[in-house]
Amino acid sequence: MENLLPKEKQAEFHLLKLAKKQELTKNTFSLEFEIPKNLKSQFKFEAGQYVTLKYPSKGEMYYNDFSMTSAPFEKNLSLGIKINQEESSTKDLFHDFEIGDFVEVSTPKGRFTLVSKPDEFRTIIGFAGGIGITPILSHFKNILHHEPRTRLFLFYGNKTRDGVPFKKEIDELAEQHKSRFHVHYFYSREKVGNAFLEGRLDEKKVGLIINQLMMIDDTDEESTLWDSVDEVLICGKGEMIKSLANACFHHGIPKKNIHFELFEEYNDDIYPQEKEFPMMEDIEVEFKLFDKEYKTTLKNNKMRLLQQLLIQKYPVPYSCKSGICGSCECVLEEGEVELLENEYLTQKEEKAGKILACMSVVLSKKLKVNFDLI
């Protein structure tokens, strides 16, 4: 995913050798990097995480985030990357670097992860759109390797059949693990002779999937496959995530078991806001950002903290505005906020005073926060 941060937070970068480069479709490609022995500990990662690549394009230096398709047990670090448009910096990344070249790569990060449970019987489903397959592919390879009792179902949406990234690898995994990995492809811009497999992955499609694909559970005659779902992984564009997450929730999956990763800027809430807040006006705000102290006044609290600071042109880091990425994480030093539902912070972090500015409704006349996390 391309990083939308106005300024990259401090990260540890290392030069890694490009070991493999492969064009997957007309606008997607993969890169594989060698991890030298002296950097193995720094590049230890969990399935579902990502790294930042630092590279030049058209005279500027870019910091872009890309999810790993490799699983932790695999030797090298592999990424899936999309060229969004003709002038995209990722096009230069593909054409300017050759096998044997060195690229600056950050140490792994991200919280789109799952706790491994190799001794349990689990059912995990994944929804992916386009290049959103990357972290889910990492998860599924890792689960198939470490969890012999876990069943996996993948519902993968793309525009056309010739535009499916990693299809060969996915099909090979499905062939190797026929009894517990099932994949279904959906196409939004191509007729494939089956109306069920045509169209976007959305809330209506979830209902059809439940009723047509996840009914009979051979291991439990009294329940359906959908009843047995333990975790849901969703990765793609914001509207897709919102639609699918709410559909899964309305069909009985607890929010804590629905995990998502966003691949573009998204300004809406994933789940509807269910609470009204008292009006606050003329709110004094102090904050520390990139070693600078700022003071400003918010007219009221109708909008959340991040959105108001961005309107006032402060370079607050963000990527999603939806409580997913954690880019706007900060520490609440004074004042009160209501922290809405988010996919990023743990309960322990919330108790320690950490908040996400994008999901914070200000509830005090004075507020002080620190974005310079240590």
UniProtKB/TrEMBL annotation:
Residues 283-374 form the 2Fe-2S ferredoxin-type domain. InterPro entries: 2Fe-2S_ferredoxin-like_sf (IPR036010), 2Fe-2S_ferredoxin-type (IPR001041), 2Fe2S_fd_BS (IPR006058), Beta-grasp_dom_sf (IPR012675), Cbr1-like_FAD-bd_dom (IPR008333), FAD-bd_FR_type (IPR017927), FNR_nucleotide-bd (IPR039261), MRET (IPR050415). GO terms for molecular function: 2 iron, 2 sulfur cluster binding; flavin adenine dinucleotide binding; metal ion binding; oxidoreductase activity. The keyword Disulfide bond does not apply. Keywords: 2Fe-2S, FAD, Flavoprotein, Iron, Iron-sulfur, Metal-binding, Oxidoreductase. This is Oxidoreductase. Its cofactor is FAD. It comes from the Bacteria. It comes from Chryseobacterium koreense CCUG 49689. The lineage of its organism: Bacteria, Pseudomonadati, Bacteroidota, Flavobacteriia, Flavobacteriales. SUPFAM superfamilies: 2Fe-2S ferredoxin-like, Ferredoxin reductase-like, C-terminal NADP-linked domain, Riboflavin synthase domain-like. Residues 11-115 form the FAD-binding FR-type domain.
